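Hey, can you fold this?
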Amino acid sequence: MAKRMMEDLVQSGLERAVELMALAANDAWHFGGKQTLKMVYLDEDEMEEMANYALSLGDMSPLAARDGRFALELMKEPWAVLVFGAGRKSTFNYNCGACGFRTCAELNKAETMESLTSNGPACVFETLNLNMAANAAAATAGRLGLHCRVFSTLAFAAKALEYIDADIVVGVAVSAARKDPFFDRHQFWTKEEWERVFNREFPTFNRGFIGAVEE
């Protein structure tokens, strides 16, 4: 039997782990017994394009720019991203009113409001199904020993680049780096950015934390 080196084993294991995450997301409990989830696994070129797109949003969304810079650093070690998406319209006919409309039919007829992060107005149960699937994927990653973080910024970059056809999106990123990279991202703010951009934009929430709607 041919000898396999550590790097090959790690990369192969990461790819297999992502498949198991996708399986867990597919099998997650969902309202209505309807599977409306969309899911894509991005390759290296797509991840680089996604990272550069997020990085380009510095004036509109400082957080996206930080995460884009961060994603380019993540690519130096084995990592992967699963992006999950769903449509904004209701397929349930629950008529719950949580979306702000009296009936699902009224929601579905409403004009679509496009924004950086997602399109709305959206059915709350579609959103819950989406996030339960993402949580199932993240939980599986944790059980498999991978570093993991759920991202909105990388997901809406994938949406903008049309890697996934969906109105609401969320991304689950995993890394096989020797050190957990996901919870020390302040290194990706320069001192100038911290003083000029972060302190000016984020406390005011004048653009919804991550610049959801362009002024």
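Oh, and this one too while you're at it.
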Amino acid sequence: MRRPPLVLRAMRQPELCVGLCAGDWDLLLRQAGAAHLLASLAAMLAERQLLAQVPERPRAHLGWAQALAERHAQAVQWEVREIARALAGLQLPLILLKGAAYAMAALPTARGRLFSDIDILVPKDSLDEVEAALMLHGWVAQHQDAYDQRYYREWMHELPPMQHARRQTFIDVHHAILPPTAAARPDPALLRAAARPLPGHAGLQTLAPLDLVLHSATHLFYDSELSHGLRDLVDIHRLLLQYGAEAGFYQRLAERAARLQLQRPLFYALRYSARLLHTPVPAYLSDAGAAAAPAAWRLALMDALFSRALLPRHASCDDACSGAARFLLYIRGNWLRMPPLLLTRHLLHKALLSPKAEPGADPA
């Protein structure tokens, strides 16, 4: 069996980093950088008070990553305050999602985590008001092409991404966590009803712990682009380490997944978190015989695909099948989000028409 990449071993057990030679450190830093985990690795070593034992040159790289992460955290705090100020007059529940939620709640998984946009969840019937308020405060919708506008507004679970005209920051406004065209339709009202207020931040909320895990799992295992796949799996790993020790947590997690129609993404999240990162998941949930598992042949195929596509996009982690695995999962991600006729139309439009009208654009 092929030995796991060095970055996986480091994420599983950061103490192993202390004994690495210069060549291994060079490889580890390259793999972690390709996985967008360099600052997270630094944070894990710092948590265990191991940074002082790292050789000087890799320690300098990790220090730069830490400095960048600290600056990023400050920028997130500022940007969230600006979003809250822009929407304050609407008197809406403003729920932060994923990276922004982890950062503002100061969760362990936020330490060293970098992300490019801030995601929020609002009621669907408030989208027009939210969009108008953001535009008044400087955010401008991207993807002005008529097809792209229809793609987002009719078929997706979010508005077209918005960018601030002055700060160049991005916000994604969601009304659900999956498109209405997907087979699974978790009720966003259930997510909003269970959301928790953020202490010290009036009007801001995050999803409840169970829903934090389920949303992260859904985002990863319904995605068609897995360039941040390992980083997102590390999110799940750290959330489970944080909450999984609570009595009855996994039983409640399974029940919540069933209520939200998210059993399958949770199954994959637990399976690959346990397999790749050695997350201590109860066997009855991670085992292939669990009720949410796909058929044996399909599970074997998913194992072959995800075991490759979730690794960093680095030559030391790839094999002859890695490119094919990423391509097949790209098709799968789109297939899960759209019925066949709509998917065919969308892919044909993006392949044949969008590049002519808007070079380089690919909102999907």
